[in-house]
User: What shape does this take?
Amino acid sequence: MTSNLNRPMSFVHPRKVILSKAQLAEFQESKTHDKIMEYIETLNEAVVGVKLTADCTMSTGAQAMMKILDRIEETARAIPPVDNQASRFGNPAFRTFYDKVSEIAPALHETLPILPVEAIPEVSVYFCESWGNRTRIDYGSGMELNFLCWMICLDHLGVVEKSDYVALVIRVFWRYIEVMRFLQSTYWLEPAGSHGVWGLDDYHFLPFLWGSAQLKGHKHLRPKSIHDHEILDEFSKDYMYLACIKFIDSIKTASIRWHSPMLDDISAVKTWDKVNSGMIKMYRAEVLGKLPVIQHFMFGSILTWEGELPPPPSAEEEEHWGHGHAQEEREVGWGDCCGIPIPAMFAAAQAANGGASKPPGPKLAGIRPVPFD
Assistant: This one.
């Protein structure tokens, strides 16, 4: 991505646009869609063979981003969960945390070098939406996408440099994942949709995509290595893919073949190269290509909507945006934000007998073939 050269003359508050399959198809052919995929692939190539523990260059902008993420965790630690033992779903204290992040976001962005003051309201929207949904107290791949968009915007505006691309993954993004794990475990954020448990991870996608890039060409570790607990213990500090597997294993007591069948299927792929290319295809199809996820995507002056803009929604319409779509239009997939709520896996892990509940059998029939051939 070229920083600064295409800086917009004016900034706008990002807003949702997509409601129909026709608009989703338009988005999939847009420059914004291409910009997102190109950025993912650029960072993907930057971290091939790179360990999380590797030394890397960090500009003052990237360092400032890390400090902001530290501040978010500090904010969460100062807002403990309320006593909510009667429910295994999201903790209401998350809304207090979300409001506090929204309050301090402008000041946090003022610490970023080069960032124009007039850009802060636009960029802050993606940042605030990265932590979960305030109303539903849930989190999913759409919120993770907002964090990616935050990085794209800061890159576009010259806050970070090309020399930061390795650090953006193994330092900034991985720190974001660490903070998100804290939020998920503290506030029992629900997976955003009823299918997360049958996908890669109840919450995340990109750690598996970029994590498989880290492992490309590894002399000894193979995709099937995720079943070896000694390997996970030894190498999870170096590779985010293995760290995510170890994390899931630490929360869910059943076999990965039961609670994460897609990850189990992927472990049969012969090489990390194929896993990585499959992850990229899967992200394009299952995140950027799914209406229940992209109906919440927000377009501004940096990540633009190129078609005709509908009238701005009212506050009430904004709150329920996209959730009234017809049953026949609903996508079946692990990214569905309109599915049956399921408890956070942290809540399930603390349930009676200390184990995660097994997912109901009929739902497993909805798993898509994995695009790793």
Observations:
- Confidence is low (pLDDT under 50) at residues 194-198, 324-340, 352-368.
- The chain has one domain: 15-366.
- Strands lie at 15-16, 138-139, 190-191, 298-299.
